[in-house]
Amino acid sequence: MSVKLDYANLNVPSKWRNLPPPPGFSSSSTGSSKGTSKSSTAVTASQEALKEKRAWDVAIAPAKSLPMQAFMLYMSGGGVQIFSMGIVFMLLFSPFKNLASTNAAFASFAPAKSDANSLSTLPLQKIVYFLCNMLTLALGLWKCRQMGLLPTGTGDWLAFETRASPPEIFLH
Amino acid sequence: MRALQLCLLVVLGFFPAVFALHESEAGVVDWHKPLIGVPLTYSHSLSPTLHRFSAGRLRKSTQSIILTATEANVLAAVNPVDGELVWRFAFEPEDPIVSYRAHGDVVCVLSGPGGSTFRTFETANGNLIAERRLHKPSFGRLFEPVDLGVHMSFVDSNFTNLSPTTDLFVLTDGYTVRRLDSGSGRIKWEWSAEDQGSLVVYSRIARTSSAVYVIGLAKSFASYTLHVHALSPSTGEVISNAHIPSSIYNGLTDFLLISDATKEDDTPHIVWLEKGSMRHIMLTPQLNEKSLVIKGVTYKSILNIGLNERGYFVALKDDGAARVMRIDAEGTRVNPAFEFPESESSDRYSDSLYAGGLDKDGIPHIGRVYWTHVFQTAGAQIFSPLSAHGKGMITGFTFPFATNLHGIIHHIAFDAAQPAETVVLGRFVLTTGTGAVQLWQQDKVQWTREESLSEIKVTEMIELPEKKTVTSHINVENETMSARLSRQLLDMKFPSYLISFVKRFATGSYASVSTSAAAEGDSAESLFRDEFGFRKVIVAATGRGNVFGIDSGNGAILWSRILGLGVAAERGGHHVPFKMFVTKTVSDGETPRVALVTQRLSKSGLVDAVVFNLDALTGEDVLGKSSTHDVLNGEEVVPGEILDVFMLENDRTIVLVDKYLQIHLYPDNKETRTTFESLASKLHFPLKATDRILGHQISPKPRAISGKFNAYSTWTMALPAGEEILSQFSPPSEPIASFGKVLGDRRTLYKYLNPAITGLITTSRGTEQPTCGLYVVDGGKGTVLYHAVLPSVNGACNIKAAMAENWLVYIYYDDEISSAVQAKGYRAVSVEFYEGKQINDKTRSSEASIYSNTSANVQIYQQGFVFPYEVTTMTTSKTKFGIATKDLIVANRRGQIQTLPRRIFDPRRPKGKPTTEEQEEMLFQYDPLIPDDSRRVISHNYKFARIDRIITSPAVLESTSLVFAYGLDLFSSRIAPSKTFDVLNENFNKAQLVLTIGGLAAAIMIARPRVKRKRLMERWYHSQ
């Protein structure tokens, strides 16, 4: 079995928790060694809260960038050009990329006791994250539609249409 | 300065690619063959003549020219040396040529009823010198033949003294004589017979220095008597007039007027036949001479050989033997001079043709041409009356006239050269039964003009097979592995392929779209398709009963065949080409074939439908029933009149409908019958009557007695009372690339693509105000999809219409003005048909049947435009897959062919500034006037006299459409309506591309090891 170093998790596995600190190292800034066990629970709780807060930040990050992206879309214009296409592709692909790596994005904020790689950890944040990404995607699709890239009209399917010849034969 | 030049270059570079034909392409991508029409042969004043006139510097040398009036109402001059057209003048149809006369440097022509218009042309170049209306055409008397009652005679008819312009006496309308100045057409005096209402019709003028004689025929019981007026040449006063006791039975041919203009004291004689005896009378101003009889022999007819002003003519004896007659030296008597040997009627020879001609020194010679049935060759004899010290000399020869290609000889014109005292060389201009004009110098044919091509009735352009590399595999099945490998390696010809590739690449000698499609060398030998399929065979059937195969690359005639008359050959008759079908194409893996359906009208009044089956590349009879050197034998399929002919697309069986509505199949065998029976109940076709269209279907089973299928009528679309169908048109069957038109908002207008659609142009004369009509009818069930009532110009309906897919364009003349801001002029209307009642409506496959209720739902968009000129014919371009846009190709009255882009004719062009959505559809603002863009003239500076029809045919390149126009001119070119998008531009910088790729490859080769080394160094020294 290979040893895996998990730097992402602040809750260091208990194997090294009971080791004495190196000489001259004080475990807390306020500094008494007596209150270690008492204060450590408080620290853990505050860290948990901090992680949750950070997880919410990550969850709504795509929504935060929406105004910026909308502005970029506006600036790139309605024509089908290399810039507008680049932005539209980014808008269309980044939600899927983000959603595919949802667990990785939230792994570092997973509560200590839970499995960081499970979908069920931080469910609320993940749902919000999903919705925000959908918003980005919707923005991309809206732009595609504006540019006439969505095959919504009958004209877009005209090339695939076939016609059966009439059952009668007309002689000229 | 340099900067300015640079600026200019940049600006010029931004100019859009011009559609126009480049000067360098003229004559390379196109060709033009001006024709003159088949020469008229029934009258001496219209038929071909060889005319000699002084030419060159100081007017010392002389030059001869062939002049003729033709069936196409053209006066033409052809160079006898090479047969090239020197000039031609096309008269309007309502102004027929009735007589022409050449004299030195001028050719004078009378045209119109009774000779109403007088024109003078320069002989050398056809410049119109003078034109004068002599009487109103509507007052002119119509004669049969047209040149009766019309005659011209030059005052100065002495050959040796040719003044540039001279006066001439002109007889018109059978009773008026004028003295005109040929250079200006000014009338010096005019005389009209007093008794214009009488039965005397004057038909000839003879002039001497002392009097002008006007000779007419007065109708009496059963015969004609001669009547002569003698007029003063300077004032036109009547000196005397007299009735000459005579009785002429055939007023047209049995009298003629001879004189010897070379003599100073010229005395004309009238010669006529009276009950087999020839009489003549000398004309003097007092008209007091008595007529004399030429005794001894009875004559059958007298022939004018064009030397009647030199005192010669030919008389045929009772047994057909031809005598040359002349005025004697004293000018008082007419005597036989010579009798042509073996000229009597015989079953060994055909009847002979006689013609007189002058040599360079003005000495007359008389030529005779006949066909010998025994030797199957044409014979010629030349009689030179002044040779051999005035005793006369005869020379003769035979020449190999190709009767299998040109039919029989109808007319000869003749002149001669006498290089030595005893040598006479003859030059014959033959007009043949197939409309060919040939010049034979002794026994060598110098050139042939196939003038029947001016009467093309049906034509098809046929794709040529690809050139195949020769593969001769002997024993392919039994060869060993190693043998096969080595053979295939040899077949690959790798080094030579590589060499040719490198050569092609380096020199850039690719097949280019602007190169000539004609093959180098002998074109008949290498009948293969060129790279882009620009070369095709045009198979054309003419009204003269012959078929031609023409190379579309250069207009050369590859083969020609005469349509045999079959059983009607005995009585005579002619073929009227009906339709032509391509029965085998190159894609069938065989040589292409065509089937020509004609109606054979025999002299006995019988009508048959005949099918000729031809190999399109060689003109050979596919069934092998007729030999290469004989006329083509057709197959009589219907013994009677046919109403229409169709071809079934699947097995290419030809279906003929006779007037009893019986169906005849060609080829008629068990296989085609079974196929036809399986299809019979599905077939629908409309037949046209004068005032209605009748839809027809075919009985599913053949009649028990005749074994033939019968058609029966299912519906009738009757026009309003008094309205008649003038012509019918329908869109060509061609591949359809797209079923609809996408709008700016990406909705679709689905094209109305009914395969049964047909159009009618009608006229209604019954009403007080004559109008014209245009109908578009569903030929499957008779629904009128579109109807327009158009103004008629003086009762005529000159409406031109063209249709392609769902697009109809028609052009008419609008002379109705309802307000001051309107103007008379030509109008073009563009109509587009779309399916359903609104946008996005479409016909489902299940609704494609004619019995579906929705199939008559059609939306129509239409828009009118002002058209800049009169159009004689128009069509649309046709490409292989129908992807390239369609151009309208029009032939206009100015003798040009022009293309007009479809975009101009879009009926949905917005009236205001186009919105973004409309811009997306490439619509631009409506402008009522169709621009007359001279850059879009594809006919270069060729001047067409008359274009009757234009046909288009796809090339192998999708972008390009081949155009063939015929009428009095033949013209072929190619057009690329969407530009040649499928071929690399010729200006494409290949060197730059190669250099760029080569440079990049070199850069990669240099950079790659260096980058590799650098990466390695980085790993060692910088990354931990």
TrEMBL record, chain A:
Segments traversing the membrane: 71-93
UniProt entry tagged with the keyword Transmembrane: yes
Region described as Disordered: spans on this chain: 18-44
Keywords: Endoplasmic reticulum, Membrane, Transmembrane, Transmembrane helix
Matching InterPro entries: TMEM85/Emc4 (IPR009445)
Amino acid composition bias (Low complexity), ranges on this chain: 26-44
Localization in the cell: Endoplasmic reticulum membrane
Annotated Gene Ontology cellular component terms: endoplasmic reticulum membrane
Membrane topology: Multi-pass membrane protein
Entry annotated with the keyword Transcription: no
Primary location: endoplasmic reticulum
UniProt-listed PANTHER family: ER MEMBRANE PROTEIN COMPLEX SUBUNIT 4
Similarity comment: family membership: Belongs to the EMC4 family.
This protein's name: ER membrane protein complex subunit 4
Organism: Schizopora paradoxa
TrEMBL record, chain B:
Protein name, per record: ER membrane protein complex subunit 1
Homology family: Belongs to the EMC1 family.
A GO term from the CC aspect: EMC complex
Coiled coil: none
Subunit structure: Component of the ER membrane protein complex (EMC).
Topology term for the membrane: Single-pass type I membrane protein
Transmembrane among keywords: yes
InterPro entries membership: Beta-prop_EMC1_1st, EMC1, EMC1_C, Quinoprotein_ADH-like_sf, WD40/YVTN_repeat-like_dom_sf
Keyword Glycoprotein appears in the UniProt entry: yes
Pfam families: Beta-prop_EMC1_N (PF25293), EMC1_C (PF07774)
Entry's Gene Ontology BP terms: protein folding in endoplasmic reticulum
Record keywords, A-Z: Endoplasmic reticulum, Glycoprotein, Membrane, Signal, Transmembrane, Transmembrane helix
